[in-house]
Amino acid sequence: MTTSPIAARTPRTSTTKVFRHVGTVALAAALLAGATTPATAAPAAPDTAATPTAATAETADRPELQRAAQAVIDAGFGGVQLRVRDERGEWTGSAGVRKLGSPAPPPNDGRFWVGSSTKTVTATVVLQLVAEGRVGLDAPVADHLPEPGLDRRITPRMLLQHTSGLFSYTGEVYDDGTVVPGIPATGKAWVENRFHRYEPAELVRFALARPARFEPGTGQNYSNTNYTLAQLLVERVTGHSFADEVERRILRPLGMRGTGVPGHRSTLPGPHAHGYYRYQDGGEWKVVDVSRQNLSLLAGAGDMYSTTRDLQTFFSALMAGRLVPAPLLAEMRTPHGHLGYGLGLFAQELPCGGTVYHHNGGAPGGYGSLMYSSPDGRTTMTAGVTTGDAPIDPAAAFPKALAGLVETVFCGR
Questions:
Q1: CA R_g for the chain
Q2: Is 14 one of the catalytic residues?
Q3: How many angstroms from the chain centroid is the CA of residue 216?
Q4: Three-class SS of residue 59?
Q5: DSSP states of 255-303 as a string?
Q6: For residues 231 and 243, what is the distance between their CA atoms, to the nearest angstrom?
Q7: Pairing of strands 346-349, 355-358
Q8: Which residues, other chains included, contact 383 with Cβ-Cβ below 8 Å and sequence gap of 6+?
Q9: 212 — alpha (psi -120 to 50), left (phi > 0) or beta?
């Protein structure tokens, strides 16, 4: 799916928000939040035997982290790879399985589709262009992108803050419960369409053909359309592909060799855990391996792959002020509206006091990501999560396990 397993409309103090803003809906139905079509509830999962676990040599020193990882599997997920860095050093571990039918655990530094964690990368590139004076944060996007026919009141700030009002091309659920479908991003329709090649301009045209949710700047609505437009903005201003700009500005300088913008490539490079998607076909429930999928559906909004190590490297550098100037980093971290969303970041208050920043994500199906940091970038938690064949509703099953992870790492519980 391309939504996050966190609830998109929960208050920003709730850890359930973590997975609702990740991508489109399959994994939000299964894992994170981005899509807007509701998933059909699955029957309760049967009791299962304990799943294998694996971790680095430090596991004996951090049993609480291994237990927190195992709680994700106990909630019904297939696998998790977890990386934590704090004052005690760096710990990596995993729980669950790499592939259904095999006892091997997920690789500790395998690749996975990160879904909407991509949005923080996109926002960072846009803000670098703002810092260079090539883009005005509050100037009309239409000055650079006249072709789509955007409302001239829409600015880069509104795109990054989800305040443009633009319809999300993965579909919308309105306050009265009305569902307006978008491009297939969940269920059987997505499974049969998951290798389709989309172009960013095509996604934007689809969205602009639908009525806006509200006048620009007068509300807030999590919309993948905003970040696909941000990608087009980067390409128009620089004259280079988005993938090239991400490589030049972020991946290469930080040594993030396990991360990429795949374009139309549907295969995860290198070692990876398999993700599965459970869907209903008529009256029958089916499970399919969705490790291969074409994420051009979420251009600029959720189409990257990465590793826990690379996500940690990126987010720590961002929080430490190494990627954007301090005034713009402050803008990124300032929560706005009912989503508590800044410019490509969520701010979350901890039950033990203090704040963490995050942007989790989920591919349309099979995969999710976690990306958390303390304000100074010194304590971080990153993870890749895969779904298996358990008949669970990830959006309902994940919040408790996620809360446990966050509190264990950032509150020492």
A1: 19
A2: no
A3: 24
A4: helix
A5: T-TT-B--TT--S--SSB---EEEEEETTEEEEEE-SS--GGGGTTTT-
A6: 9
A7: antiparallel
A8: 69, 80, 81, 82, 83, 308, 369, 370, 405
A9: beta
Token pair of 92 as six digits: 């990596």
Residue pointed to by tokens 């991360």: 259
CA–CA separation, 22 and 114 (whole Å)? 8
Categorise residue 256: left if φ over 0, alpha if ψ from -120 to 50, beta otherwise: beta
Of 180, 223, 224, nearest in space to 198 by CA: 224
| Tens of pLDDT, residues 252-273 | 999 999 999 999 999 999 999 9
- What string of H, E and C letters represents the secondary structure of 349-394? ECCCCCEEEECCEECCCCEEEEEEECCCCCCEEEEEEECCCCCCCH
pLDDT number for residue 43: 31
Rounded to the nearest 10 degrees, how much is the dihedral formed by the CA atoms of 220, 226, 227, 231? Answer: -150
Q: Is 409 helix (H, G, I), strand (E, B) or coil?
A: helix
Which residue in this structure is represented by tokens 């990608």? 231
Q: Cβ(4)–Cβ(20) under 8 Å?
A: yes
CB burial of residue 137 (10 Å; 0-12, 13-18, 19+): middle
Separation between Cα atoms, residue 270 and residue 405, nearest integer Å: 27
pTM of the model: 0.88
The one catalytic residue in 4, 14, 94, 116 is: 116
Give the DSSP letter of residue 82. Answer: E
Closest C-alpha to 229, from 322, 321, 316, 163 = 163
Q: Range with the lowest mean pLDDT among 9-23, 175-189, 293-307, 348-362?
A: 9-23
